[in-house]
Amino acid sequence: MKQLLLAGLMATSFSAVADPSKSPAVERVATFEGAMPTGVTVAPNGRIFVNYPQWGDSPAFTVGELKDGKVSAYPSQALNNADPSHAASTLISVQSVVADAANRLWILDTGAPKFAAPIVGGAKLVAVDLATNKVVKTIVLGDDVVFPTTYVNDVRFDLRVGKGGVAYITDSSVKGPGGIIVVDLDSGHAIRRLSGHASVMPDKGFVPVIEGKPLMNRPAGGSPSPWLVASDGIALSADGKTLYYCALSSRHLFSVPTALLRDEKTSDADIEKAVRDLGMKGASDGLAEDDKGRIYGGDYEHNSIRRYSAGKWETLVTDPRILWPDTLSVGTDGYLYFTANQLHRQAGFHEGKDERKQPYELLRVKIGAGPVLLK
User: Fold this and answer.
1) Per-residue pLDDT, 9
2) Could you tell me where the beta strands, DSSP code E, fall in 54-161?
3) What is the pTM of this model?
4) pLDDT in tens, 292-304
5) Which CATH number is correct for 2-366, 3.90.1210.10, 2.120.10.30, 1.20.1290.10, 2.60.40.1570?
């Protein structure tokens, strides 16, 4: 790991401060009462979808569409009625939603409410045709790639690969190895890459400081302990050749060639040799990419959104409303959208006291670029 860190620092310059006068305005898109949202995606036609994992807020549905300032179950309430006995055909606990270039909404279901071991058949990808609002494909992830400790988190798509395209998924386990899961969307065949590699694991000794306080597990009546989360944010280069990713409990961004991840003949050792540390970006949950080749990451320690371009990191915007930027999504309207959900204020980090202050927010900033849509 030390060699990776040194390589990244030598190859990448770091800019922590941008000119505030040049920062784009932070605009409020919507507010949310009740359950805390995590994921957001903006479809090419402008439709906005969000998701609510089953972490304890007891949302009435785990995937919804935002219309006229209100969120309703999507694609139906029936699909959102979790049934562990029919885990493959109902939504259990969704962590991410991503719209693709073929007018589909892909739903990444962890199958793991409250971070428990995934229910058999629950960890899956579900595709909904946005023209008909009907499920058109379900890919259940097997136990060869989904471990009892796995928590599938975020996903990116390249529809030009193979017959039906490929998906790249992060495993952000808090108890076991992180990793990247590669899924053939035609056959449903999946393989696991970089499992337990230093680049997908939390940095040792990592303790972020948010709102002036170290973020640690602080259960009521219990002792504090580090909160360490593996590979979380993920992004794809504009040409689809490079995958970017980061652990939530890290300040580094890593990259790896996608061709190596997909080639089952390539050994794990050879993939590991191709991993690159792109330097210090700040501590991020979600990542995003635009069609100009730039990568975006939240900086949850500093209420910021940061951007990587031409080997340099810069702070795009800082605003006190950016309270835990979770998922990022680029729209065809030239805006970067992101949820600000106060994740760090949950009761588990504050001795049983929920310090979140509703409403939660969906925010956006103008970036003058569009999404990466590989078809």
Assistant:
1) 34
2) 63-67, 70-73, 94-99, 104-109, 124-129, 134-140, 152-158
3) 0.94
4) 999 999 999 999 9
5) 2.120.10.30
